[in-house]
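hey m, so remember when u said the tokens were messed up on ur end? i reran from scratch. heres the input so u can diff it against urs
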Amino acid sequence: MTHEELMIQCKTKPYWWDDAPRPALPDLALPATVDVLVVGAGYTGLHAALQTARGGRSTLVVDAEEAGWGCSTRNGGQISTSIKPGFDQLAKRHGEQLALGILREGQQSLEYVAEFVRSEGIDCDFAQVGRFHAAHNAAQYQALADKLKLQPAKLNIKAHVVTRSEQRQELGSDAYWGGVVYEQHCSVHPARYHQGLLARAQAAGVLVAPRCAATAIAKQGQQFRVSTARGDVLARDVVIATNGYTGNLTPWLQRRVIPIGSYMIATEALPEGLMDRLIPKNRIVSDTRKVVFYYRSSPDRQRILFGGRVSHQETDPRVSGPKLHADMAAIFPELATVRISHSWCGFVAYTFDELMHLGKHDGLHYAMGYCGAGVGTSSYFGMRIGQQVLGLKEGQTALDGLAFQTRPLYSGNPWFLAPSVAYYRLRDRLPI
């Protein structure tokens, strides 16, 4: 099937927007002063704003696009415990106690989202389905199994190994060498989750101003003057919640996050019974490649939603869509002639130490750098930074005070990604 045939009826917008389009919020007249101004109306910004508004602070959220236009409604809807470095790596860097604390923050992020959705009554197809993390070669299977054995008992990780001979119970493919099921990981409809969060924030009194880019931030006495496309606002506290879309508004932060394009496709509706063979237990799926693939069924189990990092900067979904389709068909040959109904992309933010970061710099609060696993952590650390703005003790985290690293000659343009992606693609083909 040609690329044109694959894409003949493809929409170049997120699949999730079909039943949860971006809300058409009105253009607000901005207040002259607020207690808290948040830049970014995604998960991080809205969770922070919800905390400060419910804590009695007047709160304004501004965004250059529609609320939730970025990765908060473009992601794969997979929620894990989200800390990329393992215990051994973290212990070498920070000591065993802090390593345990950091990993617990990841576990708490998953628990927080589950409880938030339940207690707030948000209808967003949230489910604890478990993740099948697949090994793309034999060496990676052994590494996964060994890592699971060596996890500290205090973390109480609920997981089990799946051998290659058992793999078809989890995934209708022979492309992998087994893997590990993390039983507590969850799935969600990300756009409906964002819509519910936005509604709760507005009900708490948060003012949300979409299509209102912040263009400058300047200290003015004990306050900040934030210039926007609709005028200036004085704010006592400012929260930067821009993650993969962090730009020259905050150069210090821009030098510390690496924007990486992440791409997704949705297939057309599959023939009856096929999904039960491909993903029989409705797991979310990821694999051990450095240039990772992640995928799942749609909430109605009609389509495969397949994501990956096909390029360091390509932003045309009509180019990335067929590339992802080829990768998907290599895993599921039955899908080789299934058309693409949606193809889209967005930017995630990586950091040089592969940890998310939150804190305060030059008086500005921030939380960002979720390294491609931000549905849970962006929600959780957004909530925590909101608590920190309020001065609450419970806002403290194990990540407070960690150095937010950058590199010489890096100013926010990831010039090094092209050779890095090429190197890791080569490495993923090797049996190590």
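this time it looks ok to me. The CA atoms of residues 134 and 179 lie 4 Å apart. if urs says something different then somethings off w ur setup not the seq
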